[in-house]
Every structure is written in C-alpha cells, then in structure tokens.
Amino acid sequence: MQIFHLLEHTGGTGGASLLVDGFYVASILHDLYPDAYDLLSTVPIPSHAAGESGILYRAAHTLLEHDAAGNLRAVRWNNDDRSALRNVPYADVPRLYEAMRTWNKLITSQDSEYWVQLSPGTVIGAFSSSVMDFEKFKTFFAEL
Fold this sequence. Notes:
The chain has 3 helices and 9 strands, in the order ββααββββαβββ. The protein is of the alpha+beta class and 144 residues long. The protein has a single domain, classed as 4-Layer Sandwich (Double-stranded beta-helix), CATH 3.60.130.10. The chain has a 3-stranded antiparallel β-sheet. The protein has a two-stranded antiparallel sheet with strand order 1-8. The chain has a two-stranded antiparallel sheet with strand order 3-4.
C-alpha cells in the first residue's frame, strides 16, 4: 500500500500525481497484444535502484506477475530502473523491447491516466502491486 499526501503547499507549483491502474492496462495488453502479454508474463526484466551511498538493489521480475492459478497478481514497471537484459536470450531481445514499448505506450495514453491535484489534507491510498504512480512536482515545501 502506498499513501500519497501533501501537508503544506505554500508558494509552490505542481503537486499533481498521476495514477495508472496497471491491471486495467494489462487487460488491454492481453486483449490487443496477446504475444506481448505472454512475453511480459514470462521473461524476467532486470532492474536496479541506487540512492544510498554504497548500496545497490537488484532484482529481476516479470512485468506481469501471476499466481499459481494464472490470475494476475502484480504489475512491476519502472522504466527508469531497468537494467541491461543480460540474461535474456538474444533472439527474444527485439520482441521484448517491442513488448515494453507497447506497454509504455498503453500506460502513457490519456485513457489510462488518472491525474490528482494534491492539496493539503488530501490523502490517497493505492495498492502498489496494481497502481503505478508518477509525480509531476515542480516546487513545493514538504515537512513530515
């Protein structure tokens, strides 16, 4: 669960949050691009995150994660944290990049976007396994 809030916004601009329902987009991908859906459900995509000095987090997950019964359980996508596709068979790389481009096109379409302008006192809760978030902040003051 992710919680988004804004305590104060004095003299700032921005503060808009973009939410995308990953399950909704996955259903579109499944219906319109079944080969891309299958590929993004079976090929682990390596990622990394570094923010603290001397610490590097690495993981590899399929973009679309399913439970044992085949039901979509989670959507994992952060285009900025993707790593090199070292463990992907060479023959699959062009198809995987095309599938990722298709996914990115779908999550950035206006039909998939839900913009929320945060204001002081507004709280939004979202399941991080299904809702992706993107912030459009310019300047603001925040204090926890």
